[in-house]
Structures are given as structure tokens and as C-alpha cells.
Write a structure and sequence with these properties.
The structure is a homodimer.
Chain A (H helix, E strand, L loop, with lengths): L6 H12 L3 H8 L4 H10 L2 H10 L2 H10 L2 H9 L3 H10 L2 H10 L2 H10 L3 H10 L7 H4 L5 E4 L4 H12 L8 E4 L5 E5 L1 H6 L6 H4 L7 E2 L4 H10 L4 E5 L5 E6 H20 L11 H28 L8 H5 L1 H24 L7 H31 L2 H31 L10 H23 L2
Parallel strand pairs in A: 1-2, 4-5
Antiparallel strand pairs in A: 2-3, 5-6
Helix pairs in contact in A: 1-2, 3-5, 4-6, 5-7, 7-9, 8-10, 15-16, 17-22, 19-21, 19-22, 20-21, 21-22
Chain lengths: ~450, ~450
């Protein structure tokens, strides 16, 4: 059953730390899953967390450290010496170790790496630090089970037992040739069912999906989702097997991407959380609000330039927030659908067709909403001409907002820019300004002023 | 390497279908992954797709059908008889079979189920149809490898080989007692390394995570993510092993949830895609736009009630779109952070503390933005009093918007309502109205009118 860290347990841990009762702490925590240890490290203060990390077995704490939020982890590691950090890194899979080390200051990085005792682990980490964080090389772990095609099943099982001790989970067994190039995979079923003297070259499956170390993480995620893969081998340009990416890393990647897009749509520009400091949250939010401020000043300036009709048609000015809001809402809807479609490779056909469709869609929405607004304003204010002016403007603004909302993300995507930045404040602000401009133009035309 | 369905291949498939060259079609498609077959089924028209489904092996097409979008699948199945659908369902894992059948009309459902020949499969499907779609029971598959504690390793391996033929991937081997209750799991490593005469009861691991058939899918997803599980067994209230949920289902679930939240934030109320029909898209978008329209009319009515100050302070009216936009932006930011925090179980502390923090944050943002707006308006219009009125109002509106944006999702969550509906148009519309109301009140006070 889902285990929840109770406040009772937390109290006990805190008390035991304060009196340095190491035996009690070990007894309390030794059987906990590392994800639960992470919850405890997150809940207690940094000095207490550092105390626990040094006390408990690195095998347990190294995994727990990986589960922490980056800002909590940063503070925790600040309380550890390079040697103490190296002890934790020593126990981590290479991909986790590299993630941790990459977060440290340049100078500390070198000190930590120098303290790693396992030379192979050290070399692996140094190799992986060279890959882009958002590439297959950056996501992969070096730990995997590899067998040579020349081995027998018996030798293979023997070697697998040895390798499997280093590997948390055996997803697939990869088969390589003498040059360490990936040539296929082995199913556990076949291994279980074959005679022990059979050569691997006779039973391996030559059809194997793989990615290049330099492939973007996004492509790896798409590929693994499309083919429901739980692990995929990673090779270099010479097809030498370098590592593998597992589905849990992809789950994290998908979640992070979705959260990033969501935050961009909401006008939040960094990866922040509700529990971050007010300063961090302000840094993430203020720029977008400032953009909105500039847009609002622009809208006010446009309205000011129509001041001469204010006396006769005050009504027009009362409806500017409605126009701005509708332009913003339609723009966000259109851009969100395109951004999501692009992320899922779901947007087919040319930009022209896409714009045409959005125009028809916006026209349909605009017509229905324009009619509703006309009915209300004509009856409520008894001024049919003003009602016509406002409703036709609304229609035009909705169509324009739909087109802009569709075009901008498609345009950004074609230019290789993340289209997600086009949702949220960016699109609402530009649509506010355009919307109010179009609104007054059309109203002036309709009213003949 | 990522395989892409080329337009060449599509043309060949289309031509071969039109001349009914079955041999050519089989040769073209027999080696394709089912995800690629799905891409082809999606690209050709419904009649062509139905032709392919009947022609190709159900083992391949049944998986491809699962990969299709729901609306494409619906049209395709409309072109098949219940017996033809049953042939496909026969080859599917129970969880997929149930998903497909649940999508059919009640009447067709019964006909399809009646045509399923494998009695065990039929019974499994009927059992699973009773579970809520968004529960562990709705997500699980019946296919898994189970061994009894009384067996030996040799017997176990023999039995596993038999069961493994039905199971696409062996994640874990689950150990049950005589009553079929889950008592533990078996690691493949231990199985590989134990003597063949060893009893399972001696080597199984009694510590095993599991969920109840009635647990909500969301909790299952969180648990599997937290503990990096690739499969989790599902039991009923008597702890009898009923099935297992695998990580690929969870990946789909996480993606769907993220997309749903994203769409709600953008003001889109159904699960729609860029390629859906204009009517479907309108149904998903129009209600939110109508909400915005009502809000805009409300704002206009409020502004109308202040018409008497229009002549002396036209400036105030020019800044209403800015006020509305800022109220909306701040509200969306605040609510998005809370919604995401709630989804990740990241929101700690009381509602009171949370509101206090958001108030401080909004006050900081409001102060900086208010000062910027004051500097601009005071210099640009040369009217210090009006500039003070507008800036102080902006400050107040930002603080209010932050509080509302934080409070509403927290309140909805406490009431058991999905807080994601509080983002997007809902929050922008209510904040527009409140914002403009507060703005005029404060402006009137400051200006002494």
C-alpha cells in the first residue's frame, strides 16, 4: 500500500537527530524505500538532512538524493564535502551521477570526480559529461547487460549474473560483436528455453531498435512511446553500444516537458514550484506580467487616440475589456491546440490549410458570439447601430485572434523555436493590442465617424 | 532508427488496395511494427483501412487498432461486423480488449462479446468491464506470470514458459498461495541463480507493492512513479491476484492527464486535437468563450455605472483593458502553480499560509509593476493624481487576483473537484470583473470623486 511518511515518524527522526541517537535512526530508516527517505530529507532542515546522509548507507541515500527537488538537493550538497559527495556518487547509476555532478560548481565538480575510487565509474561519468543533457547520451545510463555473440548460453548466464549485480533492472540483454557494436538483442524467454551449449549467435534477435547518442531526448521519448519500449540501447556513430535509456527516465522527461508547456501557457518562465521562495517565483512571473503591462499601455494609447469619439460613443469604450478578453481567449485556445498537435506530431497539412480551417472555425464561433452580443446590446442599450458596430467588431477580432494564435506557433516551429512560448501572455498581449485597434477601426467605419 | 511511414509506401498501399492485390499488400506490411501499421490505417480512408484490417493477420492489426485515435477507430469499427471485431479483440490483451469494447454501442458490445471464442478471455473481459475506467481495475491487464509457492524452480520455469507465451513482457513473476492470494514476487535473477529443485517458497521475496482494483488510476500512477515501478500487481479485497498494471499504460495516462490540464488552462473543455472537425472543436471551445463574453458584458456594465466620471477622467477608462489583462494574467499564474503543485502533492501547509505567501508575492509584483506604471503615466499624461489612482489600483488588483487565483483551486480541491477547471477562462473572467470593480472603487477614493 502507498506508504506515507507520517508526522510521527518525522518527529522521531528529528528527535533522534537532535540527541544523535544513531542506532535509533538506523532502525527507523533502514527498511524504507529510497523515495520515502527522500520525503524525509525534504521535510527536515538541511543540517538534519546532511546528518542523515552521512549516517545512513550510501546505497540508500544516493538514490534518495536523486529523488529530491533540485533546489533542496543543492542546499544539501552544499553541506557535504567533495569527498562525502563522491561517496554518494559512487553508488549511483552513471546517468544519475552525471546529473548530480552537472549541478555542482565547476570547481567542486573536479574535486568530486577526483575522489571517485571506481576508475571505470569515473571514466564513464567523464565520458557522459560531454553529452548534451537533452540528448540520448545525456539520458542514458552506462549500466546494462551485454553479451558477445560468440558466447554460449551457459557462459552468457554466468556473465549475466555478474553484470546483473551492477544493473538495477534487466530489461533486455544486448548482443555485441567483437568490436562492441550492437548487433541484436536476446529475449529472456529464449535464454530460458535454449540448451546451455547453444551459441548466442544462433538465438539472438538481429532486429533491435536503437538511437544515436546525439539524438534529441524528445525523439527518444517519442520513439519509446510509439513502440511501447521499456528500454532502448544507445550507440555512437560507429554503432558501438554506449548505454541504454530506460522508460523511467522517459516518464520523468515527459512530465517535465508537459509541466514546462503548462507553465509557459500560464505565463511562468522557469521551472518553479508552489514551495519555491517568493524571489524565485517573482523572477519566473514578473517578466510576463511586465509584458502584459506594456500591452495594456499600448491598448490605452490606442484608446486615447480615439478620445474624440468618447463623448458620443462611450459605449464603445465600455466594451474594450470584453474585446481584449475575447481576443486573448481565442488566441490561447488556437495556439494551445497547435502547440499540443505539434508536440504529438499530429499537425498534418500545409500552414495555408491550417489557417483556413482555423479561420472557418473562428468565423463560426465569432458569428454565434457576435449574434449573442448583438441581441444583448441592442435590447439593453436600445442603440442598434452601436450594437451592430460592437458585434461586427467582435466577429472580426475573433477571426483575427484565431489566425494569429494559429500562425505564430506554426511559424516559430518552422524556425526551430519552441512554439510553447507563443501560448499564454505572449499571445494574449499581442491579441489585446491588435484586437482593440481592429475594434475601433471597424466601429468607426460602421458608425461612419 | 525511427521508422517513418513514407508517402511512397502509402501510395503503394493505396494502389494495391484499389486493385485488391492482396499478395503485394501482405509483402509490404507483414514486417511492419503495429505502431507503423496504425500510422498507415490513420492516413488512408476508412474503407481502405477496413480492407487492410480484414486482410492482415489479427495479431498485427489488433495492436495497430489500439494505437489509433479514438475517433478514427470508431469509424473503422463501424465498417466491421461484430464477428470481425471479435476476431481482433480475440488477439488483444484484456485491458485493450475492454477499452475497445467499452467504446462500442451497448448492443454491439453484447454481439462482439458473444462472438469471442476463447472462453477464458471472454470471462476476463466481462469481469473487467465492471471496473471503473479510471481505477486500477480499469487499467490492469489480466495477462501476467503467476507461480504457486509450492512449486519448485524447475516446475516454475516450465510453467513460466507456458504462461509467457500469452504475456507480451515478463516484468515480474508473482507468487500466490493456494487461495490465489498474492504473497510475494520472484526476481528473475534469483530464478536464474537457484538450484532447479529449490522450492519457490524458499526464494520468493515477500515484500511486494500492490494496489486494489478500486484504487483510483491517479494514485496508481503516482505510486508507480514514486517507486519507479514498471509493473504493479492488482488485487481484490480478499488479496486475490486479479491482474497487473504496466508502465506503458501509466505513460499514456500521465500524458492524457497533462493534456487535459493543459487544455483546461487554455479554455478547451474536451479532449480535442488539431485534426478534429470544426464542429467538434467548436463544441470544445465555445462554452468557454461564452463565459468570457458574459464576463465582458459584466465589465461593461460596471464601467457604465461609472459613466458620470467619464468626462473628467477618460484616462481611467483607457486603462481598463490593462487592469483586466493584469488581473487575468496574475490569476492564471497563481492558479497554475497551485494546480501543478496539487497534482504533484507538492502543496504543503495550510490554506492560510499559502494565501499569505501568495499575497506577499503578489504585493511584491504589484509594487514593482505599479511603480513602473506610475512613472510612465505620470510623465506621459502629466497628471500625477490620475497616475497615483491608476497605479494604486493596479497594485490592489494584482494582490486580489493572486489571492483569488490561489484560493479557488485550493477550495475546489478540498471539495473534491478537479482544480484544473479553475485555471484559464474561469479565473480570467472572474478576475476581469472583480478587477475592474476594485479599480474604479479605488480610483474614485484616490481622486475624491
Amino acid at each position: 500500500m502507498p506508504f506515507k511518511v507520517s508526522s510521527d515518524l518525522l518527529d522521531q527522526v528529528r528527535t533522534s537527530i537532535s540527541v544523535q541517537d544513531d542506532a535509533a535512526l538506523k532502525e527507523l530508516l533502514v527498511d524504507l524505500h529510497h523515495a520515502d527517505v527522500a520525503e524525509i530529507l525534504d521535510a527536515i532542515n538541511t543540517e538534519e538532512a546532511a546528518y542523515l546522509v552521512l549516517l545512513l548507507d550510501s546505497e540508500q541515500t544516493s538514490e534518495a538524493i536523486m529523488e529530491l527537488d533540485e533546489d533542496v538537493r543543492e542546499k544539501l550538497l552544499d553541506n557535504l564535502t567533495p569527498e562525502e559527495i563522491a561517496d554518494e556518487v559512487e553508488e549511483m547509476d552513471t546517468d544519475d551521477a552525471v546529473d548530480i555532478i552537472a549541478e555542482l560548481d565547476e570547481e567542486i565538480q573536479q574535486q568530486v570526480i577526483a575522489q571517485i575510487e571506481d576508475e571505470e565509474h569515473k571514466a564513464d561519468i567523464q565520458e557522459m559529461l560531454q553529452y548534451d543533457e537533452n540528448s540520448a547520451g545525456g539520458l542514458m545510463a552506462k549500466e546494462l547487460v551485454r553479451v558477445k555473440e560468440t558466447w554460449t548460453v551457459a557462459g552468457c548466464v554466468r556473465e549475466m549474473r555478474r553484470q546483473a549485480e551492477e544493473v538495477t533492472r534487466v530489461h533486455s540483454v544486448y548482443v555485441v560483436n567483437k568490436e562492441d557494436q550492437l548487433i541484436g538483442r536476446l529475449s529472456l524467454k529464449d535464454l530460458l528455453t535454449s540448451d546451455t551449449k547453444t551459441k548466442i549467435s544462433e538465438i539472438y534477435i538481429p532486429k533491435v531498435d536503437f538511437v544515436n547518442v546525439n539524438d534529441p531526448a524528445e525523439d527518444v521519448a517519442k520513439l519509446m512511446q510509439k513502440y511501447d519500449l521499456e528500454a532502448i540501447p544507445v550507440v555512437d556513430d560507429q554503432k558501438v553500444l554506449k548505454g541504454r535509456v530506460t522508460i523511467d527516465d522517459i516518464v520523468d522527461f515527459i512530465k517535465e516537458e508537459a509541466e514546462k508547456d503548462y507553465q509557459l501557457a500560464a505565463g511562468i518562465s522557469q521551472d518553479v514550484e508552489a514551495d519555491d521562495s517568493i524571489l524565485t517565483l517573482t523572477r519566473a512571473r514578473l517578466p510576463w506580467l511586465f509584458l502584459g503591462l506594456v500591452g495594456g499601455v499600448g491598448a490605452a494609447t490606442i484608446m486615447g487616440s480615439f478620445e474624440n469619439i468618447l463623448e458620443r460613443y462611450a459605449l464603445l469604450f465600455f466594451y474594450t475589456p470584453l474585446i481584449a478578453a475575447m481576443a486573448g481567449n481565442v488566441g490561447v485556445q488556437s495556439s494551445a491546440i497547435i502547440v499540443q498537435g505539434l508536440a504529438n506530431d499530429d499537425v498534418k497539412g500545409s500552414i495555408g490549410n491550417r489557417l483556413l480551417k482555423e479561420m472557418l472555425l473562428a468565423a463560426l464561433n465569432g458569428l454565434l458570439l457576435g449574434l449573442a452580443l448583438f441581441a444583448f446590446t441592442a435590447i439593453w442599450y436600445g442603440d442598434t447601430r452601436a450594437a451592430i458596430a460592437i458585434s461586427i467588431s467582435l466577429f472580426a477580432v475573433i477571426v483575427m485572434a484565431g489566425i494569429i494564435g494559429t500562425f505564430i506557433p506554426l511559424f516559430l516551429d518552422k524556425r526551430g523555436i519552441d512554439p510553447a512560448i507563443a501560448t499564454g501572455p505572449f499571445i494574449t498581449t499581442s491579441n489585446d493590442i491588435f484586437g482593440i485597434l481592429i475594434y475601433f477601426w471597424i466601429a468607426k467605419m460602421v458608425l461612419g465617424i
